[in-house]
C-alpha cells in the first residue's frame, strides 16, 4: 500500500488547484491572467478560455481599477483578507474576500502573482438583512417599552385611586409597590419584606401563597392587618412582567364590618334555631296527649257518642297528628345548624337501602325504586338519611304507580358528587322550581296529598351547611329530577361555624 508521501508526490499542481473550493487565478508580471481554476469560473461566470490572456482588470474590480494591491511596493505581502467588489459576467455585483502573494523563481525573482478569492455576497446580504431587522426590532422595542411604561403608569394610577389597599411583591417577598391606601396605613415600606410589614413576622409566613400564585393560581384568604387588627380579604394574583421577573399583586379589602355582621347573623340564627327547637319540642309535648285523649275517647265512648261527635274527635286527632308531624320536621330543620364531617366516610348505598326498606314496609302502593351504586360521602349518616328519606319519600308519595321506576344515581364533579332522585311523574312546573325548596312550599303536584312542606327545606339546609347545592330539573320524557351536591372531602366542616 503506498504511503502518504508517495500519494502527495503523485498529485500534480494542476489537480490541486482544480479541486480547491476557492476561486484562484495566476498572473504574470504584466497582470495578465495565465491560469483560471474551475471555482473562479463558477464565482465570476467567466470560463478559463474567456479569462486567460486578459488583464485582470477585466473584472472591473473595485478598488483594483484604481490601485492594484499585488504590485504596490508599499503594500506588505502576502495580503490576507483583502476586500473588493467585481462585476460578474451576468452583470451582478459580487463581494469578494481574497488573499494575494508574489510568485518567485528559483533565484527569488518575481515572475508573477497568485490570488485566491471567495464570494461573500450572500453573507453580506444576510448581514445587511440582520442589521435592518435589528434596527427595526430596536425601534419596536423602544415603542413597546414606551407602551409598557404608559400601561404600567395607568395601572398604578388605577391602583392608587382604589379605596382598597394594594401592593406588589416580587419572588424575594420584597414590596416593589404600595398604593395610596397602603401607604396611608403602613407608611412607605417599599423594599422591605411583606411578612415583616403586614404580619410583623421575621420569617416568611407559613401560609405564604407565593408558590401557588407562581403556578398561575389566584389565592384568597382572610387576615388581620395593621395596628388596629382589622380583618381583610386578600386576593393574591400573578403579575407577569416583560423581563421575566415573577411578581404578585395583592388587593386587600377591609371586611371587618362584614365579618361582624356575619358573626351577628350566625349568632341570631343559632338563637333562632334554639328557639324553634324549644318551641317545637314544647308544642309537641302538648299535642301528643291530645292525640292520645282523642283516640281514647273515640274507642271508649264509640257507643255513647253520636256520629257527628266521633267525626269531630277524628278530625281533632288528624289535625293534631298533622301538627305533630310538622313539629317533628321543624325539630329536624332546627337541629341542622352545625355540621361537621363524620369520623369516617358514609356508605350512601347502605342509607338508601335502609330508606327503601322503610318505604316498602309503610307503603300500600307506589313505584319501584332502583338505585345504582353510589359513592361515599363525608356528610354524617344522620344527615344523609334525612336527604334520602325526604327525596325518596316525596317521590314515593307524590308519583302515581305505573309512572315508571324511581331512579337513584349520581355523577362526579371536580370537588363534589351530585346525587339525584329521578321520577317519571307529573314533574315540577318551571315557575315552582325556584321555590320548591323553600320552607312550607308545596307544589302543584302535592295538591290533595298530606305533607308539611318542610322536607325539601331540610334537604336544602343540609346542602348549604355542607357547602353544597340543591336544585330540580325536568326529567326527559316527563317527571322531576331532584339533585343535591355534597363535598368529596372532609374539609367542608372546617369553615362552618
Describe it.
By secondary structure, this protein is an alpha+beta fold. It folds into four domains: 4-119, PAS domain (Beta-Lactamase, 2-Layer Sandwich); 162-254, 2-Layer Sandwich (Beta-Lactamase), CATH 3.30.450.20; 258-335; 339-497, 2-Layer Sandwich (Heat Shock Protein 90). The protein contains 14 helices and 15 strands. It has helices at residues 4-10, 13-19, 38-44, 48-51, 121-160, 180-186, 194-199, 210-213, 256-300, 307-335, 348-362, 381-398, 430-433, 455-465, and strands at 23-28, 33-36, 79-87, 93-104, 110-119, 165-170, 175-178, 219-225, 230-239, 247-254, 369-371, 406-412, 416-422, 469-474, 480-487. Strands 2-1-5-4-3 form a five-stranded antiparallel sheet. A five-stranded antiparallel sheet has the order 7-6-10-9-8. The model has no long low-confidence stretch (mean pLDDT 80).
Give a short synopsis of this structure.
This protein has 497 residues and is an alpha+beta fold. It is built from 14 helices and 15 strands. Helix 11 (348-362) crosses helix 12 (381-398).
How many β strands by DSSP? 15
CATH topology of the largest domain: Heat Shock Protein 90
Q: What's the pLDDT, averaged over the residues?
A: 80
How much β-strand is present in the residues? 15-25%
Q: State the helical fraction.
A: 40-55%
CATH class of the largest domain: Alpha Beta
Overall shape: it is: elongated
H-E order: HHEEHHEEEHEEHHHEEEHHHEHEEHHEE
Low-confidence stretches: none
Number of helices: 14
Q: Give the strand order of the largest sheet, numbering strands 1, 2, ... along the chain.
A: 2-1-5-4-3
Number of domains: 4
End-to-end CA span: 97 Å
Amino acid at each position: 500500500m503506498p504511503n502518504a508521501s508517495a500519494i502527495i508526490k503523485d498529485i500534480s499542481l494542476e489537480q490541486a488547484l482544480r479541486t480547491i473550493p476557492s476561486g484562484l487565478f495566476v498572473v504574470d508580471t504584466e497582470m495578465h491572467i495565465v491560469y483560471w481554476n474551475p471555482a473562479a469560473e463558477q464565482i465570476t461566470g467567466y470560463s478559463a478560455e474567456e479569462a486567460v490572456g486578459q488583464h485582470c482588470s477585466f473584472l472591473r474590480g473595485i478598488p483594483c481599477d484604481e490601485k492594484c494591491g499585488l504590485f504596490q511596493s508599499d503594500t506588505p505581502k502576502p495580503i490576507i483578507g483583502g476586500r473588493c467588489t467585481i462585476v460578474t459576467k451576468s452583470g451582478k455585483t459580487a463581494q469578494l474576500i481574497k488573499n494575494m502573494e508574489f510568485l518567485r523563481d528559483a533565484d527569488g525573482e518575481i515572475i508573477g502573482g497568485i490570488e485566491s478569492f471567495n464570494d461573500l455576497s450572500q453573507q453580506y446580504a444576510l448581514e445587511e438583512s440582520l442589521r435592518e431587522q435589528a434596527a427595526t426590532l430596536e425601534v419596536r422595542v423602544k415603542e413597546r417599552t414606551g407602551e409598557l411604561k404608559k400601561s404600567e403608569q395607568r395601572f398604578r394610577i388605577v391602583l392608587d385611586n382604589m379605596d382598597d389597599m394594594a401592593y406588589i411583591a416580587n419572588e424575594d417577598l420584597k414590596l416593589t409597590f404600595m398604593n395610596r391606601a397602603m401607604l396611608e396605613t403602613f407608611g412607605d415600606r417599599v423594599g422591605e419584606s411583606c411578612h415583616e410589614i403586614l404580619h410583623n413576622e421575621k420569617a416568611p409566613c407559613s401560609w405564604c401563597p407565593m408558590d401557588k400564585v407562581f403556578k398561575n393560581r389566584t389565592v384568597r384568604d382572610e387576615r388581620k392587618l395593621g395596628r388596629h387588627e382589622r380583618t381583610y380579604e386578600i386576593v393574591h394574583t400573578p403579575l407577569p412582567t416583560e423581563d421575566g421577573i415573577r411578581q404578585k399583586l395583592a388587593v386587600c379589602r377591609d371586611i371587618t364590618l362584614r365579618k361582624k355582621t356575619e358573626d351577628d347573623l350566625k349568632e341570631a340564627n343559632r338563637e333562632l334555631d334554639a328557639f324553634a327547637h324549644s318551641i317545637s319540642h314544647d308544642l309537641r309535648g302538648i299535642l301528643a296527649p291530645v292525640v292520645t285523649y282523642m283516640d281514647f275517647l273515640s274507642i271508649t265512648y264509640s257507643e255513647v257518642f253520636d256520629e257527628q261527635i266521633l267525626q269531630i274527635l277524628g278530625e281533632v286527632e288528624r289535625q293534631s297528628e298533622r301538627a305533630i308531624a310538622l313539629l317533628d320536621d321543624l325539630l329536624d330543620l332546627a337541629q341542622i345548624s352545625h355540621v361537621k364531617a363524620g369520623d369516617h366516610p358514609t356508605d350512601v348505598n347502605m342509607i338508601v337501602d335502609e330508606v327503601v326498606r322503610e318505604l316498602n314496609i309503610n307503603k300500600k302502593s307506589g313505584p319501584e325504586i332502583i338505585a345504582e351504586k353510589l359513592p361515599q360521602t363525608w356528610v354524617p349518616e344522620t344527615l344523609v338519611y334525612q336527604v334520602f328519606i325526604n327525596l325518596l319519600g316525596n317521590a314515593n308519595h307524590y308519583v302515581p304507580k305505573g309512572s315508571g321506576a324511581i331512579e337513584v344515581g349520581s355523577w362526579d364533579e371536580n370537588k363534589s358528587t351530585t346525587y339525584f332522585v329521578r321520577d317519571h311523574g307529573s314533574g315540577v312546573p318551571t315557575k315552582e322550581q325556584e321555590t320548591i325548596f323553600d320552607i312550607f312550599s308545596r307544589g302543584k303536584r302535592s295538591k290533595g296529598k298530606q305533607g308539611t312542606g318542610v322536607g325539601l327545606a331540610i334537604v336544602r339546609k343540609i346542602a348549604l351547611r355542607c357547602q353544597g347545592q340543591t336544585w330540580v330539573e325536568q326529567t326527559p320524557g316527563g317527571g322531576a329530577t331532584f339533585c343535591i351536591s355534597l363535598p368529596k372531602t372532609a374539609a367542608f366542616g372546617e369553615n362552618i361555624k
